Amino acid sequence: MATKNEPLKNNQKGPLSFDDLSASDLIRGTTPVDIKARCLTVCRSYLAGSWLNATEEDIEVTRITGGLTNQIYRVKLLKTDESVKRELCTDVAIKFYLPKLVANFDAEDGERLNDTIILTILSELGIHPRVFGIFKDGFVQEYVEVSFILIIIQKFIEFYSLFQHHQFGPEHQKQPELLRIVAHLMAKVHSLQVPIRKNLDALTSAMGRHIDEAYEDGRMELIKELNLKAFASVDLREEYPRFVDMLANANIKIVFTHTDFRGSNILVSKKNPTRILLTDLEYSSYAFRGFDLAIFMFDWGKEPLVSLADPRLPDDDVIRAFIRLYIEGAELLAPGYVDKEENSVENILREVKLCALQMFFFSNTLAINRKENLVEKVPFNLHETMVS
After folding, report:
1. Candidates 2.40.50.140, 3.30.200.20, 3.20.20.60, 1.10.3720.10; correct CATH number of 30-97+99-142?
2. Which of 12, 131, 218, 312 could form an S-S bond across to 123 if both were Cys, CB 3.0 to 4.6 Å?
3. What is the pTM for the complete model shown?
Protein backbone atom coordinates (compact mmCIF):
# COMPACT_ATOMS: atom_id res chain seq x y z
CA MET A 1 0.00 0.00 0.00
CA ALA A 2 1.24 3.51 -0.80
CA THR A 3 2.45 5.70 2.00
CA LYS A 4 0.93 9.12 2.64
CA ASN A 5 3.24 10.90 0.22
CA GLU A 6 3.62 8.13 -2.33
CA PRO A 7 1.36 8.14 -5.41
CA LEU A 8 -0.54 4.96 -6.20
CA LYS A 9 0.50 3.10 -9.29
CA ASN A 10 -1.59 1.64 -12.08
CA ASN A 11 -5.01 0.51 -10.80
CA GLN A 12 -4.12 0.28 -7.13
CA LYS A 13 -7.03 1.42 -4.95
CA GLY A 14 -6.62 3.68 -1.95
CA PRO A 15 -8.24 3.12 1.44
CA LEU A 16 -10.48 6.16 1.00
CA SER A 17 -12.67 7.65 -1.69
CA PHE A 18 -14.37 11.04 -1.72
CA ASP A 19 -17.55 9.40 -0.41
CA ASP A 20 -15.69 8.36 2.75
CA LEU A 21 -14.64 11.88 3.67
CA SER A 22 -16.05 14.31 6.19
CA ALA A 23 -16.13 18.07 5.64
CA SER A 24 -12.96 18.52 7.69
CA ASP A 25 -11.13 15.99 5.51
CA LEU A 26 -11.67 18.22 2.49
CA ILE A 27 -9.61 21.02 4.00
CA ARG A 28 -6.31 20.76 2.19
CA GLY A 29 -2.99 20.85 4.00
CA THR A 30 -2.03 19.88 7.54
CA THR A 31 -2.66 22.44 10.26
CA PRO A 32 0.71 23.39 11.82
CA VAL A 33 1.09 22.44 15.49
CA ASP A 34 2.24 25.97 16.33
CA ILE A 35 -0.59 27.70 14.49
CA LYS A 36 -1.81 29.58 17.59
CA ALA A 37 1.63 31.05 18.20
CA ARG A 38 2.04 31.99 14.54
CA CYS A 39 -1.36 33.69 14.40
CA LEU A 40 -0.75 35.57 17.64
CA THR A 41 2.60 36.85 16.36
CA VAL A 42 0.95 38.17 13.20
CA CYS A 43 -1.86 39.87 15.14
CA ARG A 44 0.54 41.48 17.59
CA SER A 45 2.64 42.84 14.74
CA TYR A 46 -0.12 44.22 12.53
CA LEU A 47 -3.11 44.89 14.79
CA ALA A 48 -1.44 46.10 18.02
CA GLY A 49 -3.96 47.37 20.63
CA SER A 50 -5.19 44.60 22.93
CA TRP A 51 -3.37 42.00 20.85
CA LEU A 52 -0.04 43.22 22.23
CA ASN A 53 -0.81 41.86 25.71
CA ALA A 54 -2.77 38.79 24.59
CA THR A 55 -1.53 35.26 25.23
CA GLU A 56 -2.41 32.07 23.39
CA GLU A 57 -5.08 31.45 26.05
CA ASP A 58 -6.71 34.75 25.13
CA ILE A 59 -7.36 33.85 21.50
CA GLU A 60 -9.40 31.32 19.57
CA VAL A 61 -8.01 30.00 16.29
CA THR A 62 -10.28 28.10 13.89
CA ARG A 63 -9.31 26.59 10.57
CA ILE A 64 -11.75 27.98 8.03
CA THR A 65 -10.71 26.36 4.79
CA GLY A 66 -7.77 25.96 2.50
CA GLY A 67 -7.53 26.56 -1.21
CA LEU A 68 -5.04 25.03 -3.57
CA THR A 69 -2.47 27.66 -2.66
CA ASN A 70 -3.34 28.81 0.86
CA GLN A 71 -4.62 28.01 4.34
CA ILE A 72 -7.04 30.37 6.11
CA TYR A 73 -7.63 30.72 9.84
CA ARG A 74 -10.12 32.75 11.85
CA VAL A 75 -8.45 34.38 14.85
CA LYS A 76 -10.67 35.84 17.55
CA LEU A 77 -9.71 37.78 20.68
CA LEU A 78 -11.71 36.32 23.56
CA LYS A 79 -11.48 39.31 25.92
CA THR A 80 -14.82 41.07 26.22
CA ASP A 81 -14.22 44.22 28.32
CA GLU A 82 -15.54 47.51 26.96
CA SER A 83 -12.16 48.83 25.80
CA VAL A 84 -11.65 45.74 23.65
CA LYS A 85 -15.17 45.90 22.22
CA ARG A 86 -14.42 49.38 20.86
CA GLU A 87 -11.50 48.03 18.81
CA LEU A 88 -12.20 47.21 15.19
CA CYS A 89 -9.84 44.26 14.78
CA THR A 90 -10.78 41.68 17.40
CA ASP A 91 -12.00 39.10 14.88
CA VAL A 92 -9.80 38.61 11.84
CA ALA A 93 -8.78 36.09 9.20
CA ILE A 94 -5.19 35.17 8.39
CA LYS A 95 -4.23 33.59 5.09
CA PHE A 96 -0.96 31.65 4.96
CA TYR A 97 0.39 31.06 1.49
CA LEU A 98 1.27 27.69 -0.04
CA PRO A 99 3.24 27.35 -3.30
CA LYS A 100 1.32 28.49 -6.38
CA LEU A 101 0.16 25.96 -8.95
CA VAL A 102 0.66 28.36 -11.85
CA ALA A 103 3.64 30.72 -11.95
CA ASN A 104 1.93 34.05 -12.69
CA PHE A 105 5.01 36.01 -11.66
CA ASP A 106 8.48 36.83 -12.94
CA ALA A 107 11.28 34.98 -11.15
CA GLU A 108 13.03 38.27 -10.43
CA ASP A 109 10.00 39.58 -8.55
CA GLY A 110 9.41 36.60 -6.29
CA GLU A 111 6.23 34.59 -6.00
CA ARG A 112 4.13 37.06 -3.98
CA LEU A 113 5.17 40.59 -5.00
CA ASN A 114 2.17 40.92 -7.31
CA ASP A 115 -0.14 39.71 -4.55
CA THR A 116 1.10 42.43 -2.20
CA ILE A 117 0.53 45.18 -4.76
CA ILE A 118 -2.89 43.92 -5.82
CA LEU A 119 -4.13 43.31 -2.27
CA THR A 120 -3.13 46.80 -1.21
CA ILE A 121 -4.93 48.51 -4.09
CA LEU A 122 -8.13 46.45 -4.07
CA SER A 123 -8.42 46.56 -0.29
CA GLU A 124 -8.15 50.35 -0.27
CA LEU A 125 -10.76 50.57 -3.04
CA GLY A 126 -13.16 48.42 -0.99
CA ILE A 127 -13.25 45.68 -3.64
CA HIS A 128 -11.49 43.12 -1.41
CA PRO A 129 -12.09 42.62 2.34
CA ARG A 130 -10.06 45.14 4.32
CA VAL A 131 -6.42 44.09 4.69
CA PHE A 132 -4.68 45.05 7.95
CA GLY A 133 -1.23 43.69 7.24
CA ILE A 134 0.81 41.87 4.61
CA PHE A 135 3.80 39.74 5.52
CA LYS A 136 6.13 37.40 3.66
CA ASP A 137 4.00 34.28 4.11
CA GLY A 138 0.52 35.78 3.84
CA PHE A 139 -1.76 38.54 5.11
CA VAL A 140 -4.31 39.39 7.82
CA GLN A 141 -7.70 40.83 6.88
CA GLU A 142 -11.14 41.50 8.29
CA TYR A 143 -13.03 38.29 9.01
CA VAL A 144 -15.88 37.80 6.56
CA GLU A 145 -18.32 35.02 7.35
CA VAL A 146 -19.42 33.22 4.23
CA SER A 147 -22.11 30.67 3.46
CA PHE A 148 -20.65 28.36 0.86
CA ILE A 149 -21.06 25.05 -0.90
CA LEU A 150 -17.98 22.96 -1.61
CA ILE A 151 -18.10 20.38 -4.37
CA ILE A 152 -15.50 17.74 -5.06
CA ILE A 153 -16.46 15.55 -8.01
CA GLN A 154 -20.12 14.73 -7.26
CA LYS A 155 -19.98 15.18 -3.49
CA PHE A 156 -21.67 18.23 -1.95
CA ILE A 157 -20.99 19.39 1.56
CA GLU A 158 -23.12 22.26 2.74
CA PHE A 159 -22.20 24.55 5.62
CA TYR A 160 -24.95 26.66 7.17
CA SER A 161 -24.83 29.21 9.98
CA LEU A 162 -25.81 32.80 10.69
CA PHE A 163 -23.47 33.97 7.96
CA GLN A 164 -22.89 37.59 7.00
CA HIS A 165 -22.12 36.88 3.33
CA HIS A 166 -23.17 34.46 0.61
CA GLN A 167 -21.23 33.26 -2.37
CA PHE A 168 -22.75 34.53 -5.61
CA GLY A 169 -25.01 31.78 -6.93
CA PRO A 170 -28.08 31.15 -9.12
CA GLU A 171 -30.43 32.98 -6.74
CA HIS A 172 -28.31 36.11 -7.15
CA GLN A 173 -28.07 35.72 -10.93
CA LYS A 174 -31.87 36.16 -11.07
CA GLN A 175 -31.70 39.59 -9.42
CA PRO A 176 -31.18 42.22 -12.17
CA GLU A 177 -29.80 44.97 -9.94
CA LEU A 178 -27.38 42.62 -8.21
CA LEU A 179 -26.21 41.32 -11.57
CA ARG A 180 -25.69 44.93 -12.70
CA ILE A 181 -23.53 45.61 -9.62
CA VAL A 182 -21.34 42.57 -10.39
CA ALA A 183 -20.99 43.56 -14.05
CA HIS A 184 -20.04 47.11 -13.09
CA LEU A 185 -17.58 45.74 -10.51
CA MET A 186 -15.92 43.61 -13.17
CA ALA A 187 -15.67 46.65 -15.43
CA LYS A 188 -14.10 48.60 -12.56
CA VAL A 189 -11.49 45.88 -11.97
CA HIS A 190 -10.69 45.83 -15.68
CA SER A 191 -10.23 49.60 -15.69
CA LEU A 192 -7.56 49.58 -12.97
CA GLN A 193 -3.99 50.54 -13.77
CA VAL A 194 -2.03 48.19 -11.51
CA PRO A 195 1.78 48.54 -11.33
CA ILE A 196 2.67 44.93 -12.09
CA ARG A 197 4.25 43.33 -15.16
CA LYS A 198 1.96 43.29 -18.17
CA ASN A 199 3.98 41.04 -20.47
CA LEU A 200 3.33 37.72 -18.71
CA ASP A 201 0.89 35.14 -20.08
CA ALA A 202 0.89 32.70 -17.18
CA LEU A 203 -1.95 30.44 -18.36
CA THR A 204 -0.65 29.96 -21.89
CA SER A 205 2.89 29.35 -20.65
CA ALA A 206 1.64 26.84 -18.08
CA MET A 207 -0.26 24.95 -20.79
CA GLY A 208 2.97 24.48 -22.72
CA ARG A 209 4.82 23.23 -19.64
CA HIS A 210 2.02 20.80 -18.76
CA ILE A 211 2.04 19.33 -22.27
CA ASP A 212 5.84 18.96 -22.37
CA GLU A 213 5.91 17.25 -18.97
CA ALA A 214 3.00 14.96 -19.89
CA TYR A 215 4.91 13.67 -22.92
CA GLU A 216 8.18 13.40 -21.01
CA ASP A 217 6.79 11.19 -18.23
CA GLY A 218 4.70 8.94 -20.48
CA ARG A 219 1.24 10.31 -19.74
CA MET A 220 0.35 10.45 -23.42
CA GLU A 221 1.24 6.77 -23.86
CA LEU A 222 -1.12 5.99 -20.99
CA ILE A 223 -3.85 7.91 -22.80
CA LYS A 224 -3.51 5.53 -25.73
CA GLU A 225 -3.44 2.53 -23.41
CA LEU A 226 -6.68 3.67 -21.75
CA ASN A 227 -8.25 4.36 -25.17
CA LEU A 228 -9.09 7.99 -24.35
CA LYS A 229 -10.07 8.74 -27.93
CA ALA A 230 -10.44 12.52 -27.75
CA PHE A 231 -6.91 12.97 -26.43
CA ALA A 232 -5.38 10.13 -28.42
CA SER A 233 -6.62 11.56 -31.73
CA VAL A 234 -4.46 14.70 -31.49
CA ASP A 235 -0.86 15.58 -30.81
CA LEU A 236 -1.02 18.31 -28.18
CA ARG A 237 2.53 19.38 -29.02
CA GLU A 238 1.21 20.39 -32.44
CA GLU A 239 -2.13 21.74 -31.25
CA TYR A 240 -0.59 24.01 -28.61
CA PRO A 241 1.42 26.35 -30.88
CA ARG A 242 -1.53 26.60 -33.28
CA PHE A 243 -3.78 27.59 -30.39
CA VAL A 244 -1.27 30.15 -29.12
CA ASP A 245 -1.05 31.70 -32.60
CA MET A 246 -4.84 31.82 -32.84
CA LEU A 247 -5.09 33.74 -29.56
CA ALA A 248 -2.27 36.09 -30.55
CA ASN A 249 -4.03 36.94 -33.82
CA ALA A 250 -7.49 37.33 -32.28
CA ASN A 251 -6.95 40.96 -31.17
CA ILE A 252 -8.37 40.36 -27.70
CA LYS A 253 -8.08 43.35 -25.41
CA ILE A 254 -5.60 42.99 -22.53
CA VAL A 255 -6.76 44.37 -19.14
CA PHE A 256 -6.11 43.81 -15.47
CA THR A 257 -8.22 40.78 -14.51
CA HIS A 258 -9.22 38.85 -11.41
CA THR A 259 -8.59 35.66 -13.45
CA ASP A 260 -10.91 33.58 -11.24
CA PHE A 261 -14.09 35.67 -11.34
CA ARG A 262 -16.41 32.83 -10.34
CA GLY A 263 -19.30 32.81 -7.87
CA SER A 264 -17.26 31.24 -5.08
CA ASN A 265 -14.98 34.31 -5.09
CA ILE A 266 -17.81 36.88 -5.18
CA LEU A 267 -19.22 37.62 -1.72
CA VAL A 268 -22.66 39.20 -1.31
CA SER A 269 -23.33 40.94 2.00
CA LYS A 270 -26.43 39.62 3.76
CA LYS A 271 -27.08 42.93 5.53
CA ASN A 272 -26.33 45.10 2.50
CA PRO A 273 -26.67 43.15 -0.77
CA THR A 274 -25.26 46.09 -2.71
CA ARG A 275 -21.91 45.53 -0.98
CA ILE A 276 -20.04 42.92 -2.98
CA LEU A 277 -16.47 41.83 -2.28
CA LEU A 278 -14.00 39.84 -4.35
CA THR A 279 -11.64 37.30 -2.77
CA ASP A 280 -8.81 35.03 -3.94
CA LEU A 281 -6.70 37.53 -5.85
CA GLU A 282 -3.62 35.29 -5.99
CA TYR A 283 -3.80 34.78 -9.74
CA SER A 284 -4.91 38.28 -10.67
CA SER A 285 -2.87 39.60 -13.57
CA TYR A 286 -3.03 41.33 -16.92
CA ALA A 287 -4.83 38.95 -19.26
CA PHE A 288 -7.50 38.75 -21.94
CA ARG A 289 -10.61 40.80 -21.12
CA GLY A 290 -12.90 37.91 -22.02
CA PHE A 291 -11.35 35.58 -19.47
CA ASP A 292 -13.16 36.96 -16.40
CA LEU A 293 -16.40 37.08 -18.38
CA ALA A 294 -15.98 33.47 -19.48
CA ILE A 295 -15.21 32.25 -15.95
CA PHE A 296 -18.27 34.08 -14.60
CA MET A 297 -20.49 32.65 -17.33
CA PHE A 298 -19.29 29.10 -16.68
CA ASP A 299 -21.08 29.42 -13.31
CA TRP A 300 -24.39 30.47 -14.84
CA GLY A 301 -27.31 28.51 -13.40
CA LYS A 302 -24.98 26.41 -11.24
CA GLU A 303 -24.02 26.50 -7.60
CA PRO A 304 -20.54 27.94 -6.94
CA LEU A 305 -17.73 25.57 -7.98
CA VAL A 306 -20.04 23.21 -9.91
CA SER A 307 -18.64 24.70 -13.12
CA LEU A 308 -15.32 23.02 -12.32
CA ALA A 309 -17.00 19.72 -13.18
CA ASP A 310 -19.41 21.14 -15.78
CA PRO A 311 -17.56 23.78 -17.87
CA ARG A 312 -20.30 24.85 -20.28
CA LEU A 313 -21.36 28.34 -21.25
CA PRO A 314 -25.02 29.40 -21.21
CA ASP A 315 -26.89 30.51 -24.33
CA ASP A 316 -25.45 33.46 -26.24
CA ASP A 317 -28.41 35.68 -25.27
CA VAL A 318 -27.57 35.22 -21.59
CA ILE A 319 -23.95 36.16 -22.22
CA ARG A 320 -24.98 39.15 -24.35
CA ALA A 321 -27.24 40.46 -21.58
CA PHE A 322 -24.39 40.40 -19.07
CA ILE A 323 -21.98 41.96 -21.58
CA ARG A 324 -24.41 44.87 -22.02
CA LEU A 325 -24.32 45.47 -18.25
CA TYR A 326 -20.53 45.24 -18.34
CA ILE A 327 -20.34 47.79 -21.17
CA GLU A 328 -22.73 50.04 -19.24
CA GLY A 329 -20.35 49.97 -16.26
CA ALA A 330 -17.29 50.56 -18.45
CA GLU A 331 -18.98 53.55 -20.10
CA LEU A 332 -19.61 55.15 -16.71
CA LEU A 333 -15.91 54.83 -15.92
CA ALA A 334 -14.63 55.92 -19.34
CA PRO A 335 -17.15 57.89 -21.44
CA GLY A 336 -16.82 56.93 -25.09
CA TYR A 337 -16.07 53.27 -24.32
CA VAL A 338 -19.31 52.17 -25.98
CA ASP A 339 -18.46 53.95 -29.26
CA LYS A 340 -15.42 51.81 -30.02
CA GLU A 341 -15.95 48.76 -32.24
CA GLU A 342 -13.63 46.67 -30.08
CA ASN A 343 -16.09 47.19 -27.22
CA SER A 344 -19.21 46.06 -29.10
CA VAL A 345 -21.36 43.31 -27.64
CA GLU A 346 -20.58 40.93 -30.50
CA ASN A 347 -16.82 41.48 -30.30
CA ILE A 348 -16.75 40.90 -26.55
CA LEU A 349 -18.93 37.80 -27.04
CA ARG A 350 -16.27 36.52 -29.48
CA GLU A 351 -13.59 37.17 -26.85
CA VAL A 352 -15.60 35.32 -24.22
CA LYS A 353 -15.83 32.21 -26.39
CA LEU A 354 -12.14 32.25 -27.26
CA CYS A 355 -11.23 32.66 -23.59
CA ALA A 356 -13.63 29.87 -22.64
CA LEU A 357 -11.70 27.65 -25.04
CA GLN A 358 -8.44 28.85 -23.46
CA MET A 359 -9.72 27.93 -19.99
CA PHE A 360 -10.91 24.53 -21.21
CA PHE A 361 -7.55 23.83 -22.88
CA PHE A 362 -5.68 24.92 -19.74
CA SER A 363 -7.86 22.80 -17.42
CA ASN A 364 -7.28 19.70 -19.51
CA THR A 365 -3.51 20.16 -19.72
CA LEU A 366 -3.46 20.68 -15.96
CA ALA A 367 -5.50 17.50 -15.46
CA ILE A 368 -3.32 15.25 -17.61
CA ASN A 369 -0.24 16.46 -15.75
CA ARG A 370 -1.62 16.11 -12.22
CA LYS A 371 0.66 14.29 -9.80
CA GLU A 372 -1.39 14.45 -6.60
CA ASN A 373 -4.98 14.56 -5.45
CA LEU A 374 -6.45 17.83 -4.27
CA VAL A 375 -7.40 16.09 -1.02
CA GLU A 376 -4.53 14.47 0.87
CA LYS A 377 -6.60 11.65 2.40
CA VAL A 378 -7.54 10.30 -1.03
CA PRO A 379 -4.41 8.63 -2.47
CA PHE A 380 -3.51 9.58 -6.02
CA ASN A 381 -4.49 7.05 -8.70
CA LEU A 382 -3.00 7.89 -12.09
CA HIS A 383 -5.36 5.73 -14.15
CA GLU A 384 -8.50 7.08 -12.51
CA THR A 385 -7.22 10.63 -12.89
CA MET A 386 -6.57 10.23 -16.61
CA VAL A 387 -9.99 8.66 -17.25
CA SER A 388 -11.82 11.37 -15.30
Report:
1. 3.30.200.20
2. 131
3. 0.83
